[in-house]
Design goal:
This protein is an alpha/beta fold. It has a single domain, classed as P-loop containing nucleotide triphosphate hydrolases (Rossmann fold, 3-Layer(aba) Sandwich), CATH 3.40.50. It is about 45% helix and about 15% strand. It is built from six helices and five strands; from the N terminus they run βαβααβαβαβα. A five-stranded parallel sheet has the order 2-3-4-1-5. β3, α4 and β4 form a beta-alpha-beta unit. α3 runs parallel beside α4. The mean pLDDT is about 85. Keywords: ATP-binding, Hydrolase, Nucleotide-binding. One of its GO terms (molecular function) is ATP hydrolysis activity.
Length: about 140
């Protein structure tokens, strides 16, 4: 899980890793799950993950998918949101068991996630991606030239 403020290159890190490893790179965001409308999100989760499980040698980035992984212990959370989180847990477990691709979550809101999503064993680590200091920005700028 890569977390930190917006604009800190979480997506770029995953893309660079894929390039370095010679893997394909796929970004899955909230819109992918909402293609068929709000009432079909659970079915869409199953469909998307079925396709993801067919991939090999791929870096998969789940970008800002908090709305489908919200903390189920929140008393204000609707039953539908709890069910979506449970669906995502099952789908992520199945994807992890395949061991054919690497996958990451990028988020600005780590605390919004259900602890079962971000626990060790489901994701290997939570990594803060902070704002680069001046020296790092200079290095990045030179690399872009």
């Amino acid at each position: 899980v890569l977390f930190g403020p917006p604009g800190t290159a979480k997506t770029t890190i995953c893309e660079a890793l894929a390039k370095r490893m010679g893997y394909d790179f796929v970004v899955i965001d909230t819109a992918v799950f909402l293609t068929d409308g709000l009432s079909n999100v659970s079915a869409r989760i199953r469909y998307v993950f079925k396709r993801l499980m067919a991939l090999r040698k791929c870096i998969i980035l789940f970008d800002e998918i908090e709305e489908f992984c919200l903390n189920r212990e929140n008393p204000d959370l609707s039953m539908e949101s709890r069910m979506l989180t449970t669906s995502m847990l099952t789908a992520i477990n199945d994807l992890r068991r395949k061991k054919q691709s690497l996958f990451f979550i990028a988020t600005n809101r780590l605390r919004a996630f259900d602890s079962a999503i971000t626990r060790p064993g489901r994701f290997d680590m939570n990594l803060l991606v902070g704002t680069p200091n001046l020296q790092s920005r200079i290095i990045q700028f030179k690399q872009q030239l």
